[in-house]
Amino acid sequence: MSSLSSRAVRIKIEAEESVKKQYTHFKHRLEIDHECILPVLDREMHSAFLQKGLSNLSSSYECLDASRPWLCYWILHSLELLDEPLSDETISQVAKFLGKCQCETGGFAGGPGQHAHLAPTYAAVNALCILGTEEAFQIIDRGAYCAASAARLTNIMTPELFDGTPEWIVRCQTYEGGFAGCPGMEAHGGYSFCGLAALTLLNKTNLCDVKNVLRWTGNRQMRYEGGFQGRTNKLVDGCYSFWQGGAFPLIHMILTMHSTKDDSSLSAESWLFHQKALQEYVLVCCQYPGGGLIDKPGSGLSIAQHFAGGKLSHVLNIGHENNIVRPTHPVYNVCVDKVVHADMFFKQLPPPKSASKSPNT
Amino acid sequence: MNKDLHKELTYITNVINKHPKNYQVWHHRRVIVERLQDPGRELDFTASILQDDAKNYHAWQHRQWVIREFDLWDNELGYVEKLLRDDLRNNSAWNQRYFVVNHTTGFTDDVIEREISVLLDRQLQNYPSVLAFCQQLYEDRYRSPYLMAYMIDTYEEMLEQESDDRAATLKKAEQLCNALADEYDQIRGEYWNYVARSLTSRYGSQTNTVEQEVS
Questions:
Q1: End-to-end distance of chain B based on CA atoms, in angstroms?
Q2: What class of enzyme is it (chain B) (predicted)?
């Protein structure tokens, strides 16, 4: 069929070739690896790359000027996964910077002086919870934002706030099984994770078809490369290690919750995807020699990739003990101890009495 | 006011051409089109973006919005067919096909017949059911994981409907799961082993008791 020899197939083959080159090169290194430490997560390099990014980013990040709380969150979470401590001075500096991004109407903006928006609000709240100091918590003015994650984490969730939301999210689940950005669109790894995690936060996972989510998400792992693609027939990309890979702990939890009897079908040792293959892809193909992670061999470096690719499984680890990262909370994407800490702080504060009272009036 | 908005539309066209993957620019375009109540340029414009990047999510989202908002369904299947001729594996185009059918005719018997004829160059009516068709493919030694997965799903449906020969059906499904896990779809080994265990635990109880009684 002529349509199969199209440009799309050619770039797929090119991607496989670049991955093959990496794996072949790695195989040669393995042959002289007498201490059997390969593949290894280059913690020092990555950590140096992240620490540097916290205070200074090159001009190529200019396009992310409206996403600065995201940069803070990505870097802070990557560092906590690597178990890298921050100095008190840095913690305070970052907290103060995020404070400058908060608007008078509540909510956080992409940078000082910009408009408040739900996405940077989510990122800023997560970043502040990772910082976890009294100063950081005090910055969060809880009155005025409503992202499910931010709301639940800071104890302001009321039923009215999310009236109709789960039903809308479920309409985004497509015939393929994954979730789309809005009803009618194509299933996509990013939206799929968000949809599933939001339903989890809202205790409404029973509304979606979890069997289809599982089949679709499982099928996104590439049999050749080991990493995930974001949508059917697209190319492998390290960032979906997080979006697609992150869905499996949620799916596991949902299946456990919904099974009528004691379901021994679910493995207690492994998630329902090939964890070793994914780790090999990230460690062998996505580590940039100078620190940081990339989406696939031959691509440019980015902080976002670093955050997303870094979510290796913490149940099964391959290679050196260096490769073990700290366990993260599967819904909030903040390390578990920090979630507990933030939860304790905000539990002391009362939830708002009525969500219908608008903060702007 | 109108004149300004048309200028603004031209302006945002240029910006989107430079930054086709930015959320805000597409939102701005939607606001302008909404104010103008004129979708005249939108189908051609999104088509031009999709020509460079056939899977641009924002372009597809804008296109779906325009089609739904201004009732522009008529020529969309034709457009989708053109895209599929270029690249049969363009999943965004397949999704659009579903979107159009779902909102226009719906999946009536006629439409399903038509869609199947799009997919197949073999005579489906020679086989009594889709499962038999798949089994024939399987016996012809096709080992596509998607084909095998589909057969497993069909067996599972048969098990749900309490078919006559439950044990045999279950066994066939389990064998397919094992073949996928061990040979044809190893990357999803964890998944297929889980499916096999789950089928056994749900439909294998009677069989197990029999076996236990025998042994």
A1: 87
A2: transferase
